[in-house]
Amino acid sequence: MKFQKSPGTQDILPGAVERWQYVEGKARDICRRFNFREIRTPMFESTELFQRGVGETTDIVEKEMYTFTDRGDRSLTLRPEGTAGVVRGYVENKLFGEPDLTKLYYIGPMFRYERAQAGRYRQFHQFGVEAIGAVDAALDAEVIALGYTFYTEVGLKGVRVELNSVGTPAVRAAFRERLLAFLEPKRELLCKDCQSRMERNPLRVLDCKTDQAHFTDAPSILDSLDEECRIHFEKVQACLTDMDIPYEINHRLVRGLDYYTHTAFEFKAEGIGAIDTIGGGGRYNGLVADIGGPDQPGVGFGIGLERTVLLLEHQQTELPELHGIDVYLVALGEAADREVSKVIYQLRTRGIRAERDYQSRKMKAQLKSADRLGAKFTAILGDDELARGEIALKEMATGDQRMVAISVLADELSK
C-alpha cells in the first residue's frame, strides 16, 4: 500500500526547511527586541473555547474546524487560530496578576478545513503576537509595527498595511442598521453565505471575497464612530505616521473573527494568486472577559508563514547563506578513519558544522560529496599525516591547501 500526505498538508523537506528556519528565527529575534515572550499552547482545546472566542457566526467555526469527541466524551478542536488559546492560557495561569503589560508571541501549526490553494493549507503555520493589559492606541501601533518590521527584515518588498476601526459593540449596533438598509435591496444579488450573514452578523458580509463589487457604495463604519473610538483611531494613525509605516484606510475591512474592537488591520502583498492578505489582526477588548478572565484589553495579530515563504520565493529574495557546512573531513586509512570520528566530534562541540563519509567511498567520491554539501573547507587525513599529527586543510573556493596541526584544526576553522 502506498501512503500519501493528506490533502491540504505538505512535507517541508531539507533544502526548503532552512528558509522556514530563517523566517522563524527572524520572528523570534524581532519579538525579543520588542520585548515579547514566547508562549506554547496545546494544539487542541475545548471546542467551546473557539465557539465563544472566535465567534459562532464566523466561517472558521461554522465550516472549517477539525472537531472530534475524545474517549472521555469531550468535544475537542484542533486550534484554527492562536489568539483564543493564548488568552485561555493567560487567564488559566493568572498572568494578569503580573504588574506589567503581558506581551506574548507564538509560532506553530493551525488547522482549518479549507479548499487548498496557493498559500492556503489545511495544516498551516502562524506567527502571532498578543499584548494584553492596556488600552493605549500606541500599543496597537506597536503591534502593527512589529509585523511590518518582520516582513521588512525577512526581505519582502511591497508589503502594505490596511487599517480600519470596527468601533465598540454599541457603535457596531448603530452601524448595523445603516448597513442593513444598504444591503437589503441587494439581498438577491448576494451569495447564500452573505444572505445568511445578513440575519446574524451583517458586518461579516463586508468580509465576503465574492461579492465585493456590490459593496462599492456601502456606508462606512468610520462615520458611525463615537468620540472615544475616533480619538483612538486617530492616535493609531498618528503613531504609524511618526514611525514612517505606510498604511491605507479601508473602511470595509472587518476581519473574519468576531472578537475585534476598535483597530482592525491587515498586511497585504501581491504575488500568490488571488490571495493578497498575508497577515492581520486587531484589538479585542472584550475577549479576555468572554473567556472567563478579568476584563483586560488586548491587541494582536496572526501572520501566515506559508504565505511569507511563498512570497520570498516569488520575489526571488536573496537570503543569507542557509545551506552548506564548514568542513568535510576525508579519511584515508583505518587509523585515520578512527581519528576523524574523534576530530569531527570535537569540531562540532566547538560550533563548527562538519560532515564525513560513512560509506567507505574513494577520495574522489568524498570530495564530490563535500562539493554537493557546500563545504567551505575539506580536511584530508591519511595514516602518514596522522603519524605526524597533521591534517591537510583545503579551501574549496580557491583550491589553496596547507598542512595544519590536528590539535589546532578547530582554531584554524574558527578564524
Provide a concise account of the structure shown.
With 415 residues, the chain is of the alpha+beta class. The protein is built from 14 helices and 16 strands.
Helix/strand layout:
Blueprint (H helix, E strand, L loop, with lengths): L16 H17 L3 E2 L5 E3 H8 L4 H6 L2 E3 L5 E4 L4 H10 L9 E10 L11 E10 L4 H18 L5 E6 L3 H15 L8 H9 L26 H16 L4 E3 L11 E12 L2 E9 L3 H4 L7 E7 H10 L12 E6 L1 H16 L4 E3 L6 H10 L4 E6 H6 L1 E6 L5 E5 L3 H6 L1
Parallel strand pairs: 1-5, 7-8, 12-13, 12-14
Antiparallel strand pairs: 2-4, 3-4, 5-6, 6-11, 7-9, 9-10, 10-11, 14-15, 15-16
Helix pairs in contact: 1-5, 2-4, 5-8
How is this structure best described in words?
The mean pLDDT is 91. The strands form 3 sheets. Strands 1-5-6-11-10-9-7-8 form an 8-stranded mixed beta sheet, with helices on both faces. Strands 13-12-14-15-16 form a 5-stranded mixed beta sheet, with helices on both faces. A 3-stranded antiparallel beta sheet has the order 2-4-3. It has 14 helices and 16 strands. By secondary structure, it is an alpha+beta fold. The two termini are 52 Å apart. The chain has helices at 17-33, 47-54, 59-64, 83-92, 137-154, 169-183, 192-200, 227-242, 287-290, 305-314, 334-349, 363-372, 383-388, 409-414, and strands at residues 37-38, 44-46, 67-69, 75-78, 102-111, 123-132, 160-165, 247-249, 261-272, 275-283, 298-304, 327-332, 354-356, 377-382, 390-395, 401-405. The chain has 2 domains: 17-167 and 225-314, 2-Layer Sandwich (BirA Bifunctional Protein, domain 2); 327-414, 3-Layer(aba) Sandwich (Rossmann fold), CATH 3.40.50.
